Amino acid sequence: MADIRRSAGLLLFRRAPGGAEVLLGHMGGPFWARKDAGAWTVPKGEYAGDEQPWDAARREFREELGLPAPDGEPLPLGEVVQSGGKHVTVWALEADLDPADVVPGTFTTEWPRGSGRTAEFPELDRVAWLPLDAARAVVVKAQAAFLDRLADRL
Fold first, then answer.
1. I want to staple 56 with a disulfide (CB 3.0 to 4.6 A). Which of 14, 23, 47, 143 is the partner?
2. Please, what CATH class does the domain formed by 6-153 belong to?
C-alpha cells in the first residue's frame, strides 16, 4: 500500500463590509497559467509523518508566501481528501496581509515535458482576497469544504 500524501495549510480570513474574505493563491507553473476555476488553493504543502500538521501548515505558509504565518487563535477546519488522493488539513486564522508583500517560493520542473530542460516557477503566481462565494467558484474542488466550514463557524 502506498504512503498517504498529506498536506497542511492556513486559510487566512478577514471580515469585510460585504462579508468574510479569504486569502487564496493561484497555483504557479505552466500547467495552471491559463486556468482559473480549480486553480486556486489554500496556501499549503506536504509534510512527512514525523512533522506535526500545525507546524507544517505554518512552515508551508512561510515557504509559499515568503511571509511569517500570522499569530492568532487557529480555527481547525478539519481534513478533506482531494481527487488525487492527497489528505489536506487546514486551519483558519483571522488576519490581514497585503498580497503585494508576498514573495512566493519556487519549484523546478521539466518544461516543456519531455524536453530535458528544467525551469523554475513560482509556487503561487498570485494571491488575492476573495469573498467566500467568489472563492468557492475558483478553489480546488475539495477545498471548497473548508470555505463552507469557515462560513458555518462565522
1. 47
2. alpha beta
